[in-house]
Design goal:
Elements lengths: L3 H12 L3 H6 L9 E6 L16 E7 L3 E9 L7 H16 L3 E6 L3 H7 L3 E2 L9 E2 L2 E3 L10 H6 L1 H10 L8 H10 L4 H14 L5 H12 L6 H25 L6 H9 L3 H11 L13
Amino acid sequence: MVSSSHEAMHRIFQHDPGLFSRVSHFLGVDVPTPVKATVLPTDLTEAGPVERRVDTLLRLETAEQGAFLLAVESQGKKDPDKPASWAYYAAYLWTKYRLPTALLVVCQDHATARWAQQPVCSGPPQLPTLTLTPLVAGPHNMPVITDPEEARADLVLASLAAITHAADTVVNEIPKALSTALRDAPEDIADPIVEFTAQGLGNRPAKHLWRNLVAVDLSFYKSYISEEIRDEGRAEGRAEDILLVLEQRGLDVSDDVRSRITDCTDPELLRLWLMHAVTAPKAEEIFGDQ
């Protein structure tokens, strides 16, 4: 099943195709800023029964180098079958569109990034007929953006930085800078960034920090993800209030009671439990007859 972080890692390049030229600086190459970009169909299936789909496919045009194709792949872990698929993508696209084809692999951990950037030859050692050398964007080369002004200068790059550093200890500083930078951004610009970042962080601990930051810093935004984030932030805050009241009253809170409170996402139910927490003789009795 495709995860939300997998989707965010490549769809962010559909949202802002010019991001690739800005990212390329960190990958050791210099790709001109495109003057035109077209999102192409990702289905690479031939007439035969084998179905192959690239994650994101863009046609970029630059004033200096003309047009080329960019295939973007999200890779969450090592997969020995992937290099052959990537080589197929590059060769097929080159054949179909008659355009130079570049491959960008986006990763969220160092081990996968090191594996993905290794050149792979399709032929025997003495006959390296086709060599695959993808560009890889990951925690090893994406910037750690902790300054709100730097984040404000390129919101999409800051979002990608948070996504690719999702598993790193430094990740917490990036969402803080990004949420601060988004305060001044128009809603139509901020909403996609909020959603890409939330999806890209997946189920990692930084997701909770991002949701809390959005709930506080971006309370005036009305997108679906923003509302969901704020609802979850409010629920988490109310659960903490209930536990605090119980602890301040000197009541014993079992692991089962604590888990039931913290796992609840219904704001009205949490509000009821908070009222009961003020007078209940035992922590277990805040749930009433439920």
